[in-house]
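Hi P.,

Sorry for the delay on this. The queue was packed all week, but I finally got your sequence through. Input first:
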Amino acid sequence: MTLPVTAGAVARAPGVSVEWVSADVPVPAAVRTDVAGFVGLAPRGPAHQPVRLTSWSQFQAVFGGYDPRCWLAYAVNGFFANGADACWVVRVVDPATAQPATAPLVPGFGAAPGQPALQATAISPGRWAEGARLTTVDLGSGQFSLTVDVPGTREIWPELSLHEMDAQFYGTVLNDPARGSQIVNLAGPAGASVGTGTVTLSGGADGLAGLQPGHFTGDLSAAAGGPCGLGALDTVDEVGLVAIPDAVGRTAPAAAGELPPPPSPARTALLYNALLVSCASHRRFALLDEPSAQDLPADALAWATILQQGTTAASFGALSYPWLLVTDPLGAPGAVLPVPGSGHLAGVFACTDLTVGVHKAPANATVVGALDVAWLVDVATHGRLNAASVNAVTMRPGRGIRIMGARTLDQDITWQYVNVRRLISMIELSLESSLAWVVFEPNTPSLQAAVEREIRSFLLSLWQRGALDGAQASDAMTVRCDDTTTTTDDVAAGRLICLIGVQPPIPAEFVTVRIAITQTGVQVTGEQGGTDGQ
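Then the structure:
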């Protein structure tokens, strides 16, 4: 006998229980927003290659720590000091002039004139490896030991082999990127020999004097032979915050070595405009610094105007004022140094994202890792800065250093709040990722309904976590994906259109996002705000 079974009904027989249930609607995962990307100058490390770091000590090991010519190390230290846990760093050099230090190893005993020797090369360009001492000992039978000495570090590599098939072959052991030497690599042709003796690396060049803005922005990627600067960072999807701390110059003593070109406001403006455009195209957020520690509040107001007039992507960045005062790690005991604050603020943003969520404005958050601010902002000045979309950072007695604003550079009420811009970017990126499967499905009413359910479930999860404002879900969001948004012409053209609206936390207004799904992927094709914002 056949038992009729309907959805939601239960058919019962002795020992048999059958139940039909609807499958749970999957909730798309929110993309990370707390991971920062830093593009800047360092004394060592891979050039124009993004490196993921999870601590300040890792930065020191890879990029060499503080340098009197650049700000990158101070920014990364401030980032981790404020509670962040991951960033990507791109070291910028002029590829045409940057060179690693090198030296040929001592050839084996009795080597004939012209017999090839192994060549030692520092693992990254720069003068950082100048004077490194490499001592080899010939152990016979094609084996040798190597000791590498640089100030503060010694590496010992026993029983290396010249034979490619041996487990201890130098190319496998010493040159391994993860477990090998952090100072030098070896290379040479078959038949090379190694004797007993000591050589010193030389000939390294930092590649700073010939730097051009395009090395930072990526515009010179073709000439550089591959992605450079921001172009190299474009390959990393998880980056949500970006800073170029060395967009502002630093005066360094001549004894510091090769110096980058002197700073200029025009150069800084060019770099910042390129950064804002890059962040807009990738839905990231830029942290910008005043060009100088000596800038007065009036300079900050003028600088904000320059940036606002120079780009159409003002909502994707924020300008802070003034610089921060930190203990000078390269100075005399007790010395204080003014530094750009973008790295510290990026750390505050990241920590807020991790502990509360990207919907939480970082205003009134505490900045740690600094002693004071370079210029005290009073109440009247704070008001003028805030009206011009400049975020004041100031010392509050008994409360430490605080970020006293969370404005983007965009003065349009829809996008003037940092948390609103970043929340909408997160929603867009999350939906682009989670809806990728739709591209391969037939554009039918059932598909449109499935897309609407998936988006609604995602927005509902945000509302439940407090990321959207509203007494009930219907106040916080709207989702529509049907024949009113996707016409027959759209279907014929291979487009599926969905309109979503969200209410970010007050005082932001309702924001509507139009998402188009085509055969080439998921794209956000338009955004608009409501008319009742505060």
